[in-house]
Amino acid sequence: MKIHDSFWSGYLRLIKGTVLPFQWSALNDEEGIRVEIENSDAPIPTEKSHAIANLKIAAGLASGTHQGYWFQDTDVYKWLEGVGHILNHFPDKELETLADEAIDLIEAAMEPDGYLNTFYQLRTPELKFKQLHLSHEMYCCGHLIEAAVAYYTATGKDKILRLACKFADCIDQNFGPEEHKRHGTDGHQEIEPALVKLYQLTGEEKYLKLAGYLLDVRGPDCFDFESFYTPKYLQAYARPKEQETAEGHAVRMMYMLTGMAETALHTGDGEMLAACHRIWENITTRRMYITGGIGSTNIGEAFTFDYDLPNDTMYCETCASIGLIYFARAMLNHEQDSRYADVMERALYNNALAGMGRDGKQYFYVNPLESFPAANQNSPNRGHVKSTRPDWFGCACCPPNLARTVSSIEKYMTSIAGGEYYTHLYIGYESEVSLGESSLTLRQEIAFDHRLDVTFTVDAKQPAGAVFNFRIPGWSRSFEACVNGKKLDNPQISHGYLKISKVWSGSETVTITFDAPVLQVSAHPFVRADAGKVAIQKGPFVYCLEEADNGDNLHLVRLTPETVFTETRPNPLYPPTLVCNGERLEVGGEWEGKLYACGQTPRYRPARLTFVPYYSWANRGVGEMLVWVSKR
């Protein structure tokens, strides 16, 4: 698939030209990066990445000791996966050469039995596979597998795939239900969806079986809880099939659910799929932010309880929203329902994209919906919230995770199920596809301004019957569709998708126009943080106020029943800026020397308010930001 999209093509070029080279330099400790703490309870283990250095030491190519977390290796694996995905878009010999060098280094560091974790190899080899709640050994293996699948698929080079299979075989030889094996699983999920990908690529049933085992064994008797980790933090308070709600560390939860959904797709495990449905409903109707962020507290980077969605002390880790994207895509494999694609789009265009600055060299770990720099700097319970994006982190999981996700954007755009073609995300592209016995060339062109215009062209060399399904976005209130210029008067709609079935011949065109009004979205009344407030959305984009446009003390502004929005387009490559009339509370001399007072009459003056897409905030220096705005 070739992406031709004014918005996403720019991101792909940024990943290739800036993000991946910068990250490689950072992984090699060649960047003058500014490392920051995202969680004040977790001290940074190193002032540099040291990820490549760790592999070199383990390979006997350098002296020294391991630095960084026990999962530092995965920064390299996720970077390598990003390279694999980007090579599908842009052949690049220089990037490929760097990737081959990294693969050679991984091979040299790997032990003869396939084991690879530089922390345990260099620091505590006697504890291999003996600290499961903490170790991340299988987590690291999972990311190596995903890198291998991506790189092999892009290049056909099988060295990295052989190494990944060797590591997976090492896990399989040590863990399982058999009496002679260890009975347990990793504290941090990730290997489960990776093993399914490895099964899909190799056809080896043992990898699918291992994924199922590692999911089934998780539970109350799986770990030694004499550590600071709790059963809920590790999603081990009950067997995954028995769980009802999203609990604990949000990233781990998402990776587990993705693994469950993808495993169930191949095994037909109804109990596992039913649990995915239950927890999906809990997340998306009670525990998800309007930006697609998840994780309401920095304590454990975790879910809390229903409708607890604070805007300024939340976590909303970039990796967690990426995990939600993966989970949504996995659910779409089971059930072609627009509600999954709506959430996937929401998390992608808002929380995930906000994690990276426009320069491709600065990143958010935490994505707040309200930012007050003075509080971020001085309040002990907001130290995890940053006012600008740091260059790098001691725990640098998010930067390469963004690289691998954005570079594989095509995997979330479309799918084929039951012989029918589905469009989930509206992004411009061209692709050759096979539907049944027919080979078709598909082109999708997008124009997003006051509305979303979609032009979908089908080129069929021979007449071919095919069914195309187009998602009706949740943010659109009406649409009009035409086939070859003829309006569909009675469109067929199924599970939130417009279905068009016919025999296609030559070059034929479907055009769809979705209205994209400016929406004032209210939260459920039980979400206390958002009572009396609205969030602004247009198309897939959630908007926010920034101090750069609206001055400070953003909490003093409000919308009115008469508020009207107008749209401007400073840059045609980006979504429109929204401008409206509102009000600002005046704070005058009557408050001088007073903290509390009776009988004060609030005075509001007219104010011109400017909203920008949330993903783009914090690119213009330090300043306040606000998503949920009061309304009179």
Tertiary shape: globular
SSE class:
alpha+beta
Rg calculated over all Cα atoms: 25 Å
- Mean pLDDT equals 96
Q: Let me know the largest β-sheet.
A: 10 strands, mixed
Low-confidence runs: none
Q: What is the number of helices?
A: 17
Strands, total number: 22
Approximate strand percentage: 15-25%
Task: Give the proportion of residues in helices.
Answer: 25-40%
**Terminal Cα separation, in Å?**
48 Å
Keywords:
single chain, 632 residues, alpha+beta, 10-stranded mixed β-sheet, 6-stranded mixed barrel, 17 helices, 22 strands, 21% strand
Describe the 3D structure.
- It is a single chain.
- This protein is of the alpha+beta class.
- It has helices at residues 8-27, 51-58, 73-87, 93-109, 118-122, 132-135, 137-155, 159-174, 191-202, 205-216, 250-267, 270-286, 318-334, 338-354, 373-378, 398-406, 547-550; strands at residues 2-3, 35-36, 370-371, 392-393, 414-417, 420-423, 429-435, 438-448, 451-471, 479-483, 486-487, 492-494, 497-515, 518-521, 533-538, 541-546, 557-559, 565-568, 577-585, 604-613, 625-626, 629-631.
- The strands form 3 sheets. Strands 1, 5, 6, 7, 8, 9, 10, 11, 12 and 13 form a 10-stranded mixed sheet that branches. The chain has a 6-stranded mixed barrel with strand order 15-16-20-19-17-22.
- α10 crosses α11.
- The longest helix is centred in the N-terminal third of the chain and has 20 residues, at 8-27.
- The relative contact order is 0.09.
- The mean pLDDT is 96.
